[in-house]
Specification:
The protein is mainly α. The chain has 16 helices and no strands. Helix 2 crosses helix 7, helix 8 runs antiparallel to helix 14 (about 380-395) and helix 11 (about 315-340) packs parallel to helix 16. The radius of gyration is 21 Å and the shape is globular.
Amino acid sequence: MRYGMPWRADRWRGRFFTIWTGQAFSLFGSQLVGFALVWWLTEKTGSGVVLAMATMAAVLPQVLLGPFVGTLVDRWNRRRTMIIADAAVAATTLCLALLFALDAARVEFVYVALFVRSIGGGFHWPAMRASTTLMVPEAQFSRIAGLNQTLQGAMSIVAPAAGAALLAVVPMQAILAVDVVTALLAIVPLLFLAIPDPAEPAEGRATFVRDLAAGFRFVASWRGLLATAALAALLNFLMAPAGSLLPLLVSQHFHGTAAHFAAANMAFGVGVVAGGAILTAWGGFRRRMVTSLSAITLMGLSTLAVGLAPSSFLSIAIGAMGLTGIASSMANGPIGAALQASVPPDLQGRVFTLVSAGAGAMMPLGLALAGPLTDIVGPGTWFVLAGAACLVLGVGGLFVPSIVRLEEDGAKLAAKRAASAEAAEGSST
């Protein structure tokens, strides 16, 4: 049952951007807290294993729950799902803030908080992403995808700067309190504005198992999507540990401070904004996957530069992080737009989370290897290995037809599914 003000397709901008603005505040709070907690762990332990474990705690829930979350999101009221998820994240952050206020915070408690927050995010973002395609006209999908990439980049600029400044003047519990407030700002618009749900099939709601199986069948029948998910899994295996180890690279190899770590993050954010702007103005190649694969190649080169930069040339690494941000934006945006345009709305929650879970499945293995390796040989080694492998994957992907033709094949598969559904409905009448 819906609640709140009804949805009007002809007024999509005001309603969508009201909700989107609340989510932007929440994203700022989450990234602010993420920056502060990572630097706290870096200063407290100086261990690659600890940072890898923290990232694993934030990754595992979405990998393990991903195949099931999408099915639930497609069955549940998506707005209610986002409200509950945001509230759970806020409550968890509030508990952690109290522990810091009582001087009782420990590394293990941070792990638990990251784990629970990840569960909330695992439900929230698939619901928001799947709802976007029903709130926004299809012609605007690419622009909204570029706008979301720009938002991610802007938050990567603002949140680290704010985090570094706040760490110098206020205690950790005050920083955590900011996240609680921004989560509430995300919840309030959802209390008053409706979000459309996908049309219910003529045969009514299927069982959970049937819904889940339908999502698996759709993904399994799309060879290009499977190949793209495998490529993303390898990239996550390589790049997720690199992101986790960046604070150690800054503090140990470059002998930097929280401000230098913030500068590296901000350079990445500037790159993401620039990449989004380039993508919005240019639009990319005719085949979106060619744009993504070219960007992955650039990501490999820039990551290599970060790992090979001498200890006295932090500026080189910061500049390379900016190029990595450009590449990240231009790699992710086209893939997301291609999937939004090709996957039927009633399957999007399942498909998005299945793909995300598959792509993230290799991240724990990468983190398990990178943490101990870093404590033995230093963090720069993993950046070199990841950059070289990423370069090979980007160039190699251009020679895999099922990946290059992802969008065309997906559109054919969706049309075939729609025709089968119409035929089945006609035979039943």
